[in-house]
User: Which sequence fits this backbone?
């Protein structure tokens, strides 16, 4: 987080290569595709690093991607230097996440107040088929 840039400007700077990508982006194979006020879109794909003992993509893959897009949607709405943290993430897995398939993860604001940001996110394929959906509540930490 930058103390001098709004959340929107900071995330756009990461997308544009002006700030270093967070390491979780490499671990999860995700990158920014679109960023605007109150909305983000990531491209993501699971690979062999995300496989569980049963041979499928671990549910933590979808959970992490959804936590990221819902949190980043909130981040786009914040002023410079204002941190936030996820306090609730409710996920519905609709079908198994495919391996080595490009997926689109979108996060959108539902409501913002001074102390809470509520957002939703989904993971879909290029045909619009939904794999997982989440709602999230983030605490906005204005006084530290």
Assistant:
């Amino acid at each position: 987080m930058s103390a001098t840039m709004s959340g929107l400007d900071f995330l756009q700077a990461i997308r544009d290569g002006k700030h270093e990508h967070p390491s979780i982006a490499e671990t999860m194979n995700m990158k920014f595709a679109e960023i605007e006020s109150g909305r983000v879109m990531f491209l993501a794909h699971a690979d062999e690093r995300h496989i569980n003992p049963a041979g499928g993509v671990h549910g933590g893959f979808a959970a992490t991607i959804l936590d990221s897009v819902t949190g980043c949607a909130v981040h786009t709405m914040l002023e410079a230097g204002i941190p936030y943290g996820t306090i609730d993430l409710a996920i519905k897995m609709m079908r198994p996440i495919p391996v080595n398939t490009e997926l689109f993860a979108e996060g959108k604001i539902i409501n913002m107040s001074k102390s809470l940001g509520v957002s939703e996110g989904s993971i879909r394929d290029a045909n619009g088929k939904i794999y997982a959906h989440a709602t999230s509540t983030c605490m906005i930490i204005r006084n530290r």
